[in-house]
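Here is the promised in-class demo. Please do not try to memorize the tokens; focus on the logic of going from shape to residues.
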């Protein structure tokens, strides 16, 4: 992977895209998995519909994440 792939402009673009999704509820393109920093984890519980869970699982697999938690952490870290 080239160092050029780590770019503040891209980071700002993703941040703006996530903000748009939160505000407008529209879909965006979430990038494929990249390395994330390691940190202690804490279990949480929340509720979503079966359809939402299916979509979330499918997207996580397609983007190369090991599990749903890793994918969710990636999304949260990029808000």
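The designed amino acids, position by position:
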């Amino acid at each position: 992977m080239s160092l050029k792939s780590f770019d503040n402009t891209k980071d700002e673009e993703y941040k703006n895209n996530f903000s748009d999704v939160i505000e407008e509820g529209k879909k965006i393109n979430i990038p494929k998995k990249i390395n994330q920093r390691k940190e202690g984890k804490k279990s949480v519980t929340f509720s979503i519909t079966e359809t939402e869970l299916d979509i979330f699982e499918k997207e996580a697999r397609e983007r190369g994440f090991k599990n749903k938690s890793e994918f969710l952490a990636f999304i949260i870290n990029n808000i």
